[in-house]
Amino acid sequence: MKQVLEGSMAIADGVRMAEPHVISAYPITPQTHIVEHLSQMVADGDLKAEFIMVESEHSAASVVLGASACGVRTYTATAAQGLLYMEEVIYNIAGMRLPVVMTLANRAVSAPINIWNDMQDAMAIRDTGAIMLVAENNQEAYDMHIQAFKIAENRDVMLPVIVNVDGFVLTHTFEVVETIDSIDKVREYLPPINMEYKLDVENPYSFGTLGEPSVYMESRYNMYNAMKYSSKTIIDAAKDFKNMFGRFYGGLTDTYKMDDAQTVIVAMGSVLGTIKDVVDELRDSGKKIGVLKIRSFRPFPEEEIVNALKNAKNVIVIEKAICPGKGGILSVEIRDSLFKHKINTVNVNGYTIGLGGRDITPKNIKDLVERAEKEENVDGEFIGLSQQYL
Amino acid sequence: MLTKEETRNELFTMGHTGCSGCAQSMSVKLIMEILGKNTIATSATGCLEVFSTRWPESSWKIPWIHSLFENSAAVASGVEAALKYMGKKDGINVIAQGGDGGTADIGLQALSGMFERNHDVLYICYDNGAYMNTGYQRSGLTPFDAYTTTSPSGKESFGNNRPKKYMPEIAMAHRIPYTAVSSAGYPMDLQKKVKKAMTIKGAKYLQVDVPCVPGWKYEPRYSVKLAQLAVQTGLYPLFEAEYDKIISVKKISKKVPVEEYLKLQGRFKHLFKDEAGRAEIEKIQKMADENIERYGLM
Lengths: 390, 298
What we know:
The structure holds 2 protein chains of 2 kinds.
Chain A: E1 2-6, H1 7-18, E2 22-25, H2 32-43, E3 50-53, H3 57-69, E4 74-78, H4 80-95, E5 101-106, H5 120-123, E6 131-134, H6 138-152, E7 161-166, E8 174-178, H7 183-189, E9 206-207, H8 216-245, E10 253-256, E11 263-267, H9 271-284, E12 289-294, E13 296-298, H10 302-309, E14 314-319, H11 330-340, E15 347-352, H12 362-372, E16 379-382
Parallel strand pairs in A: 2-3, 2-4, 4-5, 5-7, 6-7, 11-12, 11-14, 14-15, 15-16
Antiparallel strand pairs in A: 1-8, 6-13, 10-12
Helix pairs in contact in A: 1-2, 1-6, 3-4, 6-8, 9-12
Chain B: H1 4-8, H2 23-35, E1 39-43, H3 47-52, E2 64-66, H4 72-86, E3 93-99, H5 100-105, H6 108-116, E4 122-127, E5 153-154, E6 157-158, H7 167-173, E7 178-183, H8 187-198, E8 204-209, H9 213-216, H10 223-232, E9 239-242, E10 245-249, H11 258-262, H12 275-295
Parallel strand pairs in B: 1-2, 1-3, 3-4, 4-8, 7-8
Antiparallel strand pairs in B: 5-6, 7-9, 9-10
């Protein structure tokens, strides 16, 4: 059924269709609407779940950790400071191989305090061992949440999945979303959770034991391998979803107007909408330009990226995050991927833009396209600074 | 005395690497005897977690989970919620465990949340009065004038300069249905309180005084004796409360001077050096006397 839904409502409804058993959360802008909607669904009896409203994000993540270890399906959501506060727990969830699904309403980190969108929060947890997917619009966010549970609960994966959605730009924006009418179809797509190891009095296991130097590395290696393997699961989940519900956004990446493209813009999340509009316009004026969308940031889709970019001349990486003391993050990983594959004919320029909710306009993108052809190896340069505040 | 076979069948089994004379491991054993196999336990980071679960070994014959230092209560809240969802809560006890640091310092927020939401969980704080697992640093439950490595005695110091936080009263302030204080020195009292806690639905708090051989610096054979002396001096009052009302206290038959308790422990030996130390012992005696008065221990 097609509905006009606020992003948060679309996400909550996608989560409802996945039928989580325990939900725990703590309010933080711009995530709050999601858990408000979910708690209302539980209050109305539309979702049969234990909803635990806790005293902090640290406990929200800990509650779903404990519940997940019992073998039930779990969900939480947060943003920015809340994510940083629960980061320790995310490492722990991943290390214990618990399939928690979580929404991250991407938001700037403090200081200065700022509630608006960028992706600095996501970049702070990129090494936790959580799978990190990024949705472009509300429809993809809805669909991606259902896929996320399927990926997380795969026996060969068993890792938390974080679905990134741009705060406000998606969470607070109304768009047409086609929701799934049949919960039975979702149940067919996403079978009941069935964990091999869980806290069960009939078959007791010890979780979270001490890993001494003789075993710790192997434990981390197994997790690292599961993350690597999950690439396949993510692609399969997207394909299965397409077969059952008809919608597809690519596997780990997606491409747009990439045939013969000499200039490629790479980005994640909602900014892709603006970028595609600009690319349409530039294509109309004869420019050979295309778009590479990163749908899975972790695992990092190195092969797909190299294949998509190897014939390009100029690559423009649009990043809503910065690594102080270095520069770009996504752009550095892309440059590294090309270098590893001995491709030295591609000029990769990374630009930092739109931090703390600053608008990214079509003109910004067009300017970068022009600049990128004249510049080399730009490493996270800030775009659109006001000189008066420097 | 248990036979070797019986010991093997215990739910918290031998083979762990706790120190000889460890009153915490002794208490866990006593508690598990009462709780039985239909129990799921969480543990905060700390001695208990380290000495009982060196992978691939584990002393736990019940489902057990350790996550982090400060979230034992929150993880237990999640376990309880999952059991509730599955309709299994009624037959299964959920306990959360932590040391004094994991409970009263870093874990206090998560514990307060668990209390306030009234999860059907028994939280057990094994109080040995310092961060023993990291090598004897002061916590919010370190007693007055105790030497620890971060509250050392010296020319300008008699050790820890603050009294213990009144953690059981903090629990009671949440109006949870049951709060109890017990001691490794009184196994019957401890087991009785665990048994009672199991009959009560909602959040429960049990604090157990567990002497620590290396942290308190005494001979292993004194673990039980010290736990008993802590009670008999009035320094560690044992009581039970329902909601905000104390309903029973363990009476002291014959008051023991605090000196008898302090002198057996290396962590207080600096108090026995000179007159100034004597004056400090007087202060500790006053604290014990105030406890006797306050809780009606005699």
